[in-house]
Amino acid sequence: MSGFVKELNSGEAIPFASVMIDSASTGVSANAYGVYSLIVPRHPVVLRFSALGYATLTLHTAPRRDTVVQILLTESPTILEAIDVVDDEQSIVGSETATRLNTSFIKRAPALLGEKDVFKTIQLMPGVQFGTEGSSALYVRGGMPDQNLIMLDDAPVYNASHLFGFFSAFNADATTNVSFWKSGFPAQYGGRVSSILDLKMKEGNKGRMAGDGGIGILSARMTLEGPIKSGKSSFLISGRRSFLDLFAPLITRNDMMYRLYDFNAKFNVEANARNKFYLSMYTGNDQLVLSESENLSSSSTAAKTDLDWGNFITTIRWNHVFNQKVFANTTVFSSQFKFHLSDELNKSGPTPQYQFSKYESGIRDYGIKSDVDYFINTRHTVKIGYLFTYHLYSPKAFRYEDQFLKIKENSFERHKNYELGLYVEEQWTPVERFTLRLGARYNVLVAPHKTYRALEPRAEASYHFGNGLSILGSYTRANQYVHLLSTTGIGLATDLWVPVTQRVPPIQSDQASLRVSKLFRDCGINVSLESYRKYLRNILHYSTDASFLVISEAPTNISWEDNVTVGKGKSFGSELMVEKSGRLSGWVAYTLSWSINHFNDLNNGKPFHARQDSRHAISTNASYQLSRKILLALTWTYRSGFAINAPQGYYFANTTNFSQDIINTSTLPYYGALNSFRTEAYHRLDMSAQFHKKKRKYERFCEVGLFNAYNRKNPFYYYLKTEYLDGGSKRVVLKKRALFPIIPSLSYNIIF
């Protein structure tokens, strides 16, 4: 028996649905496109189809031949069923290391300025941390933001943030399913060493016109979806835009403008029962413009700085069902990230002057990938595929012009790499309750003057004891063929994407993890404890005497390869998570972790704590359905101090100006060992309440929230300040600067 699992009203595929055979106590999982296939006995059986957020469908059947059955599930009437509780007497073939989130769960959590954000929800999970206050960057088990593979409809996304990292670039209204791995990577994913984040856009409602939208303090958004040909094709269009540029003139007198937007579109056609075609597109952009002018009687001066960055992604996908056991998905994609900074000075009058400088950086990918699922039987599933990517890097393109001095100069740098990945993976249940997933990936990267080859074994084993107790272990080797050079550590657009070269090798990681979990069915609570160890090789760090670049008054020939040093790192720790489903749902997570780096050229060759090293982290995410109309939610996060390179003290140095016979006293900071300063602990409470009202043709709800509800002054950055004491003496002290006080939010939303 095979077919698709779809949503009843919209006709959208439901990924990773569970299909259970009651009599045999076994089952399978549908793949990422809702396709399932299993062997059923000839005698009458009962099948149960279930998925996160949907009511379970029971099917009584007695097939006498191969049968194709399309399954339609309805959304669960219990809004807070956020955890898929499976009968502990049953076993399911499939990966268990992935965390699955649907957008309805993400939309319930409180958020900064009411902007729902998949990244902020993932930051609440054990083993995942954020950078600075409000940042959407993901630090997964000691890794850096560039070590996370972020994919939207099978295309890689290089900069997934808005507003200098405070929000992710993904509109929750346009996404339907989020899969997140921090260990046990499936063999089909390659190119990153810390985590996999796979987002799928909605396909569009095939049955009727539908939509939702909202307006908040920061932005407005609108999503429309509906059939092109009922039951056969559909579309989705979703957009979001900020108000900041509209209100800025009222506050800043026209000298600053900031705007952000993102736009998603998707079209799909079901040509027949065996072939489906999809066209997806995403574009998002941020722009900051600073301008200043001065008018005098004889001259005028105008200065303008323009900073913008954004992504543009397109994918064409073909789903093909060869037969009831073989399914293939082929994707052609293009992904581009571009950063631009320009400065312009125009002066008129007796001594006119015009200066212009422009700096650009970016990365562009073109690729094709294909994945084939072969459902041999209930105990065996094989997956094979390939990925070919052409990488085009532009780390630096600089233009400078000075009309007064008659100078025109240009400088640019480009790199090309070719990447090929081949993989095979089998999910096998040799005996009931015991599941193995064994796979391997072979990568080839062709860089100028150097070719890198690597074999990546992947393995995962799980055993269900039958009383709600299970154990799972995994091992993953991964390689990364792109680097991000950062002076901030928070994943800003100003950071530099650079390729693997002859001098700079790819990052390689080995990670092993072991998890024990226990399901208490009577109270709907699941407790899991997981420990891990991860080893990293060939990670990059700016060298001690690096020039952070590379933007100056004229083009510079300094190579980024001369500014970096290569080292290694390791991270290890344990993660405890307690989940609950029901009217009160959510989780409490605790992480104990270490992250240590070692570079021969840094810290006198001695190991040091990585910037993202934080010993303890606690997060709580809870929502409570007070009534059918009122939903309450809160999150509380705590993180002990992380390691930064801040002054530990200071000393005075006297210098003599012999021409004027004056002795000057300078204050010089003493830093000690690299990253030896610990920031103070971070903690914050966010709260929200949603008030729903259902009408005959639509539903509306208003949400009020508080970010940083008890007004905690968490450090955003540290700086030195000189204080003068009585008697003329002085001292230098380390001060902190907080960013977000208590911030209320209000939004109005409508669903139709």
Q: How much is the radius of gyration in Å?
A: 28 Å
Pairing-aware structural class of the strands and helices?
A: mainly beta
Number of helices: 3
Largest β-sheet summary: 22 strands, antiparallel, barrel
Number of strands: 48
Q: Helix coverage percent of residues?
A: under 10%
Explain the layout of strands and helices.
Layout: E1 2-7, E2 18-21, E3 26-29, E4 35-37, E5 45-50, E6 57-61, E7 71-73, E8 91-93, E9 99-102, H1 103-106, H2 118-122, E10 128-129, E11 139-140, E12 148-152, E13 155-156, E14 161-162, E15 167-168, E16 175-181, E17 195-201, E18 210-215, E19 219-229, E20 233-242, H3 244-252, E21 256-270, E22 275-295, E23 300-321, E24 326-348, E25 353-375, E26 380-402, E27 407-431, E28 434-447, E29 450-464, E30 469-480, E31 482-485, E32 496-499, E33 507-520, E34 525-542, E35 564-580, E36 584-598, E37 608-609, E38 616-625, E39 630-639, E40 643-644, E41 649-657, E42 662-670, E43 677-678, E44 682-694, E45 699-707, E46 715-724, E47 730-738, E48 743-751
Parallel strand pairs: 1-7, 3-8, 12-17
Antiparallel strand pairs: 1-4, 2-3, 2-5, 5-6, 9-16, 10-11, 12-13, 14-15, 16-17, 18-19, 18-48, 19-20, 20-21, 21-22, 22-23, 23-24, 24-25, 25-26, 26-27, 27-28, 28-29, 29-30, 30-33, 31-32, 33-34, 34-35, 35-36, 36-37, 36-38, 38-39, 39-44, 40-43, 41-42, 44-45, 45-48, 46-47
What are the key terms here?
Maltoporin, Chain A; Immunoglobulin-like; five-stranded mixed sheet; mainly beta; 3 helices; 22-stranded antiparallel barrel; 48 strands; 752 residues
